[in-house]
Amino acid sequence: MPTAIYIILIPLLPLAGFLLLGLLGRKYFHQSSGIIGTLLLLVSTVLALYVAYGYFMDYGKMNGVYQKLIPFNFTWLEFSPGMSIDMGIILDPISVMMLVVVTFISLMVHIYSLEYMKGEERFPVYYSFLGLFTFSMLGLVISSNIFQMYFFWELVGVSSFLLIGFYYDKPSAVAACKKAFIVTRFADLGFLIGILVLSYYSGTLDFNTLIQRLTSPESNEFKNAVAASFLGLSAITWGVVLVFIGGAGKSAMFPLHIWLPDAMEGPTPVSALIHAATMVVAGVFLVARLFPVFAISAPQALNLVGYVGAVSAFIAAIIACTQTDIKRVLAYSTMSQIGYMMFALGVSKYGGEEGLGYTASMFHLFTHAMFKALLFLGAGAVIHSVHSNEMKDMGGLRKYMPITHITFLIACLAIAGIPPFAGFFSKEEILLAAFQHNPAIYWVALLTSALTAFYMFRLYFNIFWSKASSLQKVELEAHNTHGEGGFLMMMPLILLAFGAAVAGFIPFGRFISSDGTSLESRFHLQFSIAPVVLSLIGTFTALAFYKNKNSKPDKIAASLNGLYRAAYHKFYIDELYLFITKKILFNLIGRPIAWIDKNIVDGLMNAIGNTTRFVAELIKGFQSGKVQQYAIYFLMGAIGLVALFVYVLK
Amino acid sequence: MNLIGLILLPLLTAVLVLLARNNAQVKLVALIGSAAQLVLAVLLLLIYRNEVASGNHAQMLFEQEYKWFPAWNINFHLGVDGISVAMILLTAFVVIAGVLVSWNISKMTKEFYFLLILLSLGAYGFFISLDLFILFFFLEIAVIPKYLLIGIWGSGKKEYSANKLALMLMGGSSLVLVGLLGLYFAIPEHSFDLLKLSKVIIPVDIQRICFPLLFVGFGVFTAIFPFHTWVPDGHSSAPTAGSMFLAGISMKLGGYGCLRVATYIMPDGAKEYATIIIVLSSIAILYGAFATMMQQDLKYINAYSSISHCGFVLLGIGMLTKTAMTGAVMQMVSHGLMTALFFAVIGMIYERTNTRQVNEMGGLLKVMPFIATLLFIVGLCSLGLPGLSGFVAEMTIFMGSWEHPDMFHRVATIVACMSIVVTAVYILRAIGQTAMGPIKEEYQNLSDAKWNEVAAAVILVTGILAIGIAPTWLNDLIRPATEIIMQKISAVK
Questions:
Q1: pLDDT in tens, B57-110
Q2: Taking burial as the number of CB atoms within 10 A of a residue's CB, which of A566, B28, B63, B307 is the most buried?
Q3: Contacts of residue B380 in chain A, CB cutoff 8 Å?
Q4: How does DSSP assign B393-415, residue by residue?
Q5: Whole-prediction pTM value?
Q6: What is A135-194 written as a DSSP string?
């Protein structure tokens, strides 16, 4: 066991960065704020790697099973004995893995931003928000108490809000950050009520105790919770479904995904960190954290997770094929990939070989973090040089941006699931798990992986091949004098590309499995044929369509008229939400209430006042409007009542 | 510790303010006096904690009793428990912040500061009284200055608002008075003494009449639905410090009274009327939040949101569980600090832009980063962001409310929980339109906060953070006191 202080420092260093740069950055560290934030995070990353190494290689394992260690814990707010919000650290395979992922990706983004955000007026603010986000996210993954997780969950939400709205004078950014916060808040309501339900039946907020009590059939808590059913589902099922709603909101699962594409209004490195690699997988992490409860005590809820994940993966992939803003394509692709992680959990069982889906989901989370962060940072480099998010403004960039081009290609191959890149291995496991437990989801997933390859290479060819317009060319060549971005922007790309290329060879099952035991991953050659062939079909279709500018895509789009338009407009889900909020919340609830309050409730109060005045005038003929007089009336009335009282009582 | 100091200090300050020769002296005296209040309040907290830690578990500490009006058996009886200490701290924080933000007031400065200090005197007296007659006396002291503050230094339709506020609060007080007299005659020895009244069992029939009188009477102060309509008008017309005091302190007098007087003395009544309280407060929470959503004026926004937030106080009391009740007291403190800061920020913005309409502003973050950041902090506190005080209070109330396993309480709790979403909507709308977005031409040259505004904000933010980051001290302070109240309630069959 390491001293707790090392582990505590991992989240606290970014917090220190937030406070330091947030309070003093503007005045004292305008130039150096980026360096300060990056250095602090570098230390955090090193510590996280140290902890991970120690945990996986040394003290984490006992009798062949990875333990859940709690090296640090204190009571933060006690409600009643046994029921308290504790702030603690839990070390188990998934939290340790997340520590590494979050610190590493965050470090990459910190370094990348040194150049990308250079010259920005609010440079220190940017780094302080990054610090706040990193702190919150790290706090979230090491939470040992469900309320502690909610605590950091909300903080993560607010840092995401602040960073999406970083360009606060752009109305679209303001709208986007509000939307992101409110949609996830709505989902968090589910999380909160879920916590209330689960804590009521388990009598604790501590993760370990809660899971233990709600999964062992002998415990009284379990019996009570199962006996208490509502609409035919047990209290546990209700509890975890509600919690899952919170997770679905944060992870942008259908139908709570509408905020994610808009969140791309934030600076691109932020999208890479928050809206691709770390925060959006919080929902997956939450389900994984409570996985034993889902798998053992609430199988219906786990099924729900599976179907929501599959539907999200599929719908997002279709929409991604039609979008023209490169960041939005990536956003939908993120949603789709998180859908994979979700349904992988959904099809998993608890323990042993049956728990393959769990391992696969975490594996995909890990590899996805690498290649998706890479894609976003690559897209950032592209946007940096062409000053546009639109595909039509790009084309033929491979000559001007060779490093970005190669790394982007690696990421595309990885996400498309082409061997031997990382995505291939993790997706393979997910498909296998789905195949074994839920064929319906398997077929959907298979189709989605073809779509994935298609939209990713559509993006790739449109950016790097195709043909640039002549005007564009002139501009690009002018730009090219300062290249595709300097060392600070390219180094993270290269490191992440390395990760995206080789991360698949990590024997993941050996470290992370649903019950902590070791799970040897086997390689099924025959099984891999179908997905890889489908991915290649997707890739070559994209090649045929988009390598050179031609009319084929438009023709296809025209022939799919209705479907294409629906997908282009994101299946009108945004409009539906707009209808609900504008028409129902504002016009049907808010406006009438405000009116009633002003005219009826207040009118009633004024009427009482006026009647008093009227009566007073009648009786005494006094000029009214003097408060002293009213006071006297009240006093007299009071005394009168008292007199009445005394007599009544006697 | 001698509690009379808490009354004498503001009294002395008020006299010195009257004696001061010029405005500079007035302000200096008021500032020193309110700083001394803050020191005294913090000292009280420390000494109180020390006493408790050293094993003094008396219900009330630092008790003092003097004969005042023997013929009617009225005594000047003082004492504090954890709840009172928390409220006294809140008062001290709000008072000094109020004094600081009013630094630039030019109209009748002396009278203005005199009234502010007088208000704080009323509030301290109220929170330390153990004799209900004295308590009522101080309650009235805290009401009357508000009428003048709004009527003289207010803005907009100030006469109407001042009248409305004074009338409704007076109406509330008269209900309280009737209820108190009912209690007085209910026990054979005729007493107003809180501790004595709490030791005897008040006949259930009397509780049935007196409980609603007292609860609604105090409830008017804390904006119980449907007697909340003085809040929006009163706040919007009041000067900045007036709004801060009104929402930060006065509304808490009501909550404190509901808990300490109505609920504690009459547990049967509380049990009988709990359902109605819960219904009314759940309505207030959601109804207030929706009404806030439609407001354009920043002060109206905070006023309606106060109705919603004070609904939590009454909900916590109505739930009749130890945790929820503790949460209710926390919510009083939290809301007091937060709303005072909110009104202070609104005042700062108004002084610069001369408007409070959210749709007329925009991009203020660019020219006044400090003030706009405060707006973010207070908004986030209002919507219950962890790490700030609102989260702690609301979560405690939710946890306490959920202890009831029946459907009615569950539904009420879920309704209350839903407000966190609506709150997010209106807060983000307000922040988005004022602090964010493109900045208007005419606001390009506005200046950021001055020293007095910075100081006021720092004091209030410190309070908000102290609760939000380390709530244990507040929890430990309040819990023993709510436990005593709950013991009486659980004794009722």
A1: 888 888 888 888 888 888 899 999 999 999 999 999 999 999 999 888 888 888
A2: B307
A3: 158
A4: HHHHHHHHHTT--SHHHHHHHHH
A5: 0.91
A6: HHHHHHHT-SBHHHHHHHHHHHHHHHHHHHTTSTTSHHHHHHHHHHHHHHHHHHHHHHHH
pLDDT at A106 over 60: yes
Q: Which amino acid is at A499?
A: G
Q: How many residues does chain B have?
A: 493
Query: What chain B residue is nearest to A625 in terms of C-alpha separation?
Result: B163
pLDDT digits (tens, 9 = 90+) for A517-569: 777 766 677 777 888 888 888 888 877 777 776 777 777 777 777 777 777 77
Of A285, A271, A281, A309, which is closest to residue A142 (Cα–Cα)?
Answer: A285
Do residue B424 and residue A182 have CB atoms under 8 angstroms apart? yes
B169 or A628, greater pLDDT: B169
CA distance A157 to chain B (A): 10
Q: Is the peptide bond before A420 cis (omega within 30 degrees of 0)?
A: yes
Q: How confident is the model at residue B191 (pLDDT cuts 50, 70, 90)?
A: confident
Residue A481: pLDDT band (50, 70, 90) is: very low
What single-letter DSSP state applies at residue A465?
S
Q: Is A77 within 8 Å of B295 when comparing Cβ atoms?
A: no
Q: Is the pLDDT of residue A648 over 70?
A: no
Q: Is A174 close to B402, i.e. CB distance below 8 A?
A: no
Residue with tokens 């709205």: A165
Cβ distance B246 to B145 under 8 Å? no
CB contact under 8 A, B387 and A151: yes
Taking an 8 Å cut-off on Cβ atoms, the answer to whether B386 and A152 are in contact is yes
Give the tens place of pLDDT for each residue, B308-338.
999 999 999 999 999 999 999 999 999 999 9
Nearest CA in chain B to A624: B163
Q: Distance between CA A243 and CA A205 in Å, rounded? A: 13
* B133 in contact with chain A, both atoms CB, cutoff 8 A: no
Chain B stretch 83-122, residues whose beta carbon is closer than 8 A to a beta carbon of chain A:
none
Q: Residue ranges per domain, chain B? A: 5-490
**ipTM of the assembly?**
0.92
Q: Does residue A217 have a cis bond before it (omega within 30 degrees)?
A: no
Picking from A135, A163, A185 by the largest number of B CB atoms within 10 A of its own CB, the best residue to mutate is A185
324-383 in B: which are within 8 Å (CB) of A?
A: 363, 365-366, 369, 380, 383
**Testing the interface with B: which of A156, A164, A634, A647 to mutate, by most B Cβ within 10 A?**
A634
In DSSP terms, A230 is beta-bridged to A233
